[in-house]
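Q: For a teaching session next week I want to show students how multiple molecules come together into a single three-dimensional assembly. I've collected the sequence lines for a complex. Could you give me the predicted structure tokens for the whole thing so I can convert them for display?
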Amino acid sequence: MSARKPGAVPGSYWGYRAVLITVASIVLLTLAYGIAAGASDTWDRLQVMTQAVQNTWTGWGWSLF
Amino acid sequence: VPYLLGFLAVAVGIYIGVWLIVAGFMLYLLPALLIGAVVAVPAGAALAVVVAILTLTGLSAAPGVISPEDVVAASPRTSRGGVPKAFPRDRAWPSYFAGQATIDLAQVWRATSAVLTDGWRWIGRGVTGGWALAIPALVVASPLWICVSVGAYAAAGLILTAGVLIMLVLGVCWMAPTVLFRGLDRLIRKLRRASGSCPFCYHVTELPTFTCPGCGWRHRDVRPGRLGGLWRRCGCGTLLPTTVLRMAHKTQPQCPRCESLLRDGGAVVTDIRLPVFGPVSAGKTRLVYTGLLGLRDQVSAGGGVLDFVDEESQQTFEHAVALVGAGGDTVKTPADGLPHAITARVTLGRRRALLHMFDAAGEFYADRDDNSDLEFLDHAQGLVFVIDPFSIAWVRDQIGRSSGPDIVRMANPAHGDPEGIYHVTARRLRDYGVATRKRRLAVAVVKADPLDRLPLASPLDAGHVRQWLVDAGLDNLVLSAERDFGEVAYFVTASLAGTRATDARSPARPVAWLCAGAGLELWPGSGATADVPAQEEEESV
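A: Of course. Below is the structure for the complete assembly, covering every listed component.
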């Protein structure tokens, strides 16, 4: 029978928490992987979108001036 | 005209100002917000992940922990049936799945919400802090923080969903062996007919108490459950096995009522409780002593062992061996206190059993008020009723005047009417709701050896004890016993040293017959009775 310091949280708690931390880390890694994989494509889309906004404004915005 | 020109100039100025703001918004801010939103959503998700990791590692916003003291303090005061509980839950760490998992996951969500709420408060202070801060707070910080919040809540939700699913899987993996262990523990003990009998207060329990070797705390329910599946962690930190079977190997079981130590093996091996009752001086104690002697010899002859696990029983037995061997008379059992059980451990191959014999003074059986404390009667699997033939009027009437009085004096007849004693005890059992129809009763007519020297009208032979009792005028007693109990067997015994247990007059035979009824056949055929069963006799008439 092993004894621990009274009041110390059982090791099994940390074991299960480690599982949850692993789950959170997997979420983070998946996110990072997703961003890395889609970064170029996202940047291209962003450029197109910002260009479209700017073009819309330059198209009729100057006419209001 | 000047006023009109001035008004036009102001209007044009306002128009140009608004145009410049809108142009700036459309040309720079909106594209920047679009880019910022794309960055803010994953940033929010990353924030939630970091918060979750910090929370679970306890570095920030650590979740509360359900401590053993919380378990004791939060114990329900009543059971499911509304019956008040005598004891709180044991002081032990609960299983992670019993509550801590929920607290941890909820804390991850709360900590994420708290960080986002802090952000919104900061933005709120900017909004109310004047134009210079309000515009960037409203136009830039708010939309970006909305994106951060969306990403953070989405990630936190994902973490919680995945966490809950993982915990469900792990919980099932934890619960399966827990339920299996609990069921096996109960099944094995049920098959063994094991229970914990307190030799001192006579309480019988399926669930003995065990003291933690680390801190001395009494654990009242060591079955696998919410306080531990295969193992439990005591509040002092000592790791203890669950299940009664495993815990009994670590520390000796205790009575949950009086906290006395149970006999070694209590609640783990077959437990047989046999009280011996009868009038004062009937020969109960001698029957117990010589019966145990006979059992020991016969069990040894069969390759088994009958020994004693506690010092008190060992000493009592050694004293009995010396006394009976020397041909001495047993001392009158004191009537000033309740007896402790004499416990013998029987080992037959891999089968083990504890045999508790209860021998109270005859005074306790004389009156209904006096036998109220004899709780061992209620928990007995069978009872031995001792009849002293010299206390029967029919016998005494036949004793001759020449040698008879000497024999009677030597036999030291019992004080009290056997029928009266039986009815007082039977009434007590009925009053306490004991299912006597499921119990065995061994009626032992003792002192056969001095009786042999008397010329009786009907000799007392093994196999015809019932008829002899009827002839002796105890037909009411016989009928009552057969009506009250599930099985009744009649024995004639000579409580002498050296009588083989297989002998028809052995005092071990009633005990062996009752043991067989309780599921322990001490030797082949020990469950058979030499006497003609009552029903067969009636059928033959």
